[in-house]
């Protein structure tokens, strides 16, 4: 990627100046992967994004059933959607230095990347790491393995005990009995998700940014190194709530930087020329107005999920479509003791996924408002995976009703811009031999599952497409998620002038 990960520069500054507090926020660019992806048609891109959103959301739902602590396996959230996720770039300190781009993902809790030799099975049609995102070649002499006695190793293996980990690492019995396993490295761990998996090993290594003199170094950064994967060729910078996530490791160096981060995703509407603008990712900024942005954040409480502790779960009370208020089911407002319920705020999923009943009520209101005057574009629905879609005349797009999300908490309502939930574009598939092109519009929300299904984990996902044009803040100290309307493209310019 052309953009550098500036926050690592300042992270490294902290590593060299750990005795002093670091009060200045860090601003860094996120690159939308659409800008490096090539799709033949808008239909192709929408179909890919909708299919991957459904697969990722299903994985959220079924993750509890794929988790096996006794075998050291854990279900984690990984970005599954090439062409719909946001990436950030940094450099591994090696000879020569190696640059790599990772998906930025609030739904996972580990930083990992593909390492040479790397074999990805069933990765046809996905980003090729050898062309777009080269694999990393580790120098074992300068890379430290993580001990099986380390808490980081236990975290990667779903909190297995030191004895279990040392046994897996083939530590001699006498060493296990005296808990002296520091010289034995953490064994490989297995991650499984919706339609893929990988095996990785934990390492510690130095990271630097050579483009910002003087070169600054973050030492002993813990990450997973994968040599084999199924269906997942690109690594991840996990921003979730786990102890191995990027914010968690940053917080150990500077609590201010690690305990509060936000991003502002530039609205692109799947237009390649618009995704070239960077989306700012902000670490450590205090709650205050920057530049000409004056709107306050709307906050909702983070909900703890005992089965998926790395998720940022919130409660959704309901949705208003136009003047019609639709109340959400109880399991969307809270998370129970088994980890079921709530909505995941996820930067790695494209489209918001709603429970079938709530989604059906939203669609019914759109049908009542639009279906009686506009013809359904069923052929577009088949090609994109989105529904409902309608044929429009140029002067009737204003009839689309407003959509408001009501989160749990007083005054926690968020009015979505129309482009965040209803995408209109020119369709050339309806012209027949005349080649006539027509205007169509599609609802950019998707149906998940039946609310009656039990023991399924989170019941909804707030995708990154619906987060566009908002600064979304994750306040870990006060345990809340906030939303504020922003002009994200100009926010980037404003931040870098301060």
UniProtKB/TrEMBL annotation:
<keyword id="KW-0732">Signal</keyword>
<dbReference type="InterPro" id="IPR032799">
    <property type="entry name" value="TAXi_C"/>
</dbReference>
<keyword id="KW-0064">Aspartyl protease</keyword>
<dbReference type="InterPro" id="IPR032861">
    <property type="entry name" value="TAXi_N"/>
</dbReference>
<keyword id="KW-0645">Protease</keyword>
<dbReference type="GO" id="GO:0006508">
    <property type="term" value="P:proteolysis"/>
</dbReference>
<keyword id="KW-0378">Hydrolase</keyword>
<keyword id="KW-0325">Glycoprotein</keyword>
<feature type="domain" description="Peptidase A1">
    <location>
        <begin position="86"/>
        <end position="484"/>
    </location>
</feature>
<comment type="similarity">
    <text>Belongs to the peptidase A1 family.</text>
</comment>
<dbReference type="GO" id="GO:0004190">
    <property type="term" value="F:aspartic-type endopeptidase activity"/>
</dbReference>
<dbReference type="InterPro" id="IPR033121">
    <property type="entry name" value="PEPTIDASE_A1"/>
</dbReference>
<protein>
    <recommendedName>
        <fullName>Peptidase A1 domain-containing protein</fullName>
    </recommendedName>
</protein>
<dbReference type="InterPro" id="IPR034161">
    <property type="entry name" value="Pepsin-like_plant"/>
</dbReference>
<feature type="signal peptide">
    <location>
        <begin position="1"/>
        <end position="23"/>
    </location>
</feature>
<dbReference type="InterPro" id="IPR021109">
    <property type="entry name" value="Peptidase_aspartic_dom_sf"/>
</dbReference>
<dbReference type="InterPro" id="IPR051708">
    <property type="entry name" value="Plant_Aspart_Prot_A1"/>
</dbReference>
<dbReference type="Pfam" id="PF14543">
    <property type="entry name" value="TAXi_N"/>
</dbReference>
<dbReference type="Pfam" id="PF14541">
    <property type="entry name" value="TAXi_C"/>
</dbReference>
């Amino acid at each position: 990627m052309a953009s550098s990960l500036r926050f690592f520069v300042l992270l490294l500054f902290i590593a060299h100046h750990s005795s002093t507090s670091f009060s200045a926020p860090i601003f860094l660019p996120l690159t939308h992967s659409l800008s490096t992806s090539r799709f033949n048609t808008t239909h192709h891109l929408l179909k890919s994004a909708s299919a991957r959103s459904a697969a990722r959301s299903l994985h959220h739902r079924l993750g509890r059933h794929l988790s096996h602590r006794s075998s050291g396996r854990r279900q984690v959230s990984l970005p599954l959607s090439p062409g719909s996720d946001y990436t950030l770039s940094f450099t591994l300190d090696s000879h020569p230095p190696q640059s790599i781009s990772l998906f930025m993902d609030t739904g996972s809790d580990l930083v990992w990347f593909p390492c040479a030799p790397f074999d990805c099975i069933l990765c046809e049609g996905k980003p090729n790491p050898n062309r777009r995102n080269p694999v990393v070649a580790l120098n074992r002499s300068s890379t430290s393995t993580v001990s099986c006695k380390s808490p980081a190793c236990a975290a990667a293996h779903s909190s297995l005990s030191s004895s279990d980990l040392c046994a897996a690492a083939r530590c001699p019995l006498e060493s296990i009995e005296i808990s002296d396993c520091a010289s034995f490295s953490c064994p490989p761990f297995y991650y499984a998700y919706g339609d893929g998996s990988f095996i990785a090993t934990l390492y510690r290594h130095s990271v630097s940014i050579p483009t910002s003199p003087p070169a600054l170094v973050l030492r002993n950064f813990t990450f997973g190194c994968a040599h084999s994967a199924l269906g997942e060729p690109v690594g991840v910078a996990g921003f979730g709530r786990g102890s191995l996530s990027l914010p968690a490791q940053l917080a150990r160096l500077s609590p201010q930087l690690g305990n509060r981060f936000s991003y502002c995703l530039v609205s692109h509407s799947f237009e390649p020329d618009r995704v070239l603008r960077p989306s700012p990712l902000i670490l450590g900024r205090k709650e205050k107005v920057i530049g000409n942005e004056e709107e306050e954040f709307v906050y909702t409480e983070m909900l703890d999920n005992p089965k998926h502790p790395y998720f940022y779960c919130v409660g959704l009370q309901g949705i208003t479509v136009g003047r019609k208020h639709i109340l959400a089911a109880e399991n969307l407002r809270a998370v129970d003791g088994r980890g079921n319920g709530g909505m995941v705020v996820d930067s790695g999923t494209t489209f918001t996924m709603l429970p079938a009943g709530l989604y059906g009520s939203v669609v019914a209101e759109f049908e009542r408002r639009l279906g009686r005057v506009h013809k359904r574009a069923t052929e577009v629905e088949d090609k994109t995976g989105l529904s409902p879609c309608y044929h429009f005349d140029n002067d009737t797009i204003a009839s689309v009703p407003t959509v408001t999300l009501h989160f749990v908490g007083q005054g926690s309502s968020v009015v979505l811009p129309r482009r965040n939930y209803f995408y209109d574009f020119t369709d050339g598939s309806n012209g027949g031999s005349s080649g006539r092109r027509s205007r169509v519009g599609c609802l950019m929300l998707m149906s998940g599952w039946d609310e009656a299904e039990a023991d399924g984990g989170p019941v909804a996902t707030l995708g990154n497409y619906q987060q566009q044009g908002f600064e979304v803040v994750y306040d870990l100290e006060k345990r809340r998620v906030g939303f504020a309307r922003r002009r994200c493209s100009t926010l980037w310019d404003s931040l870098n002038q301060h």
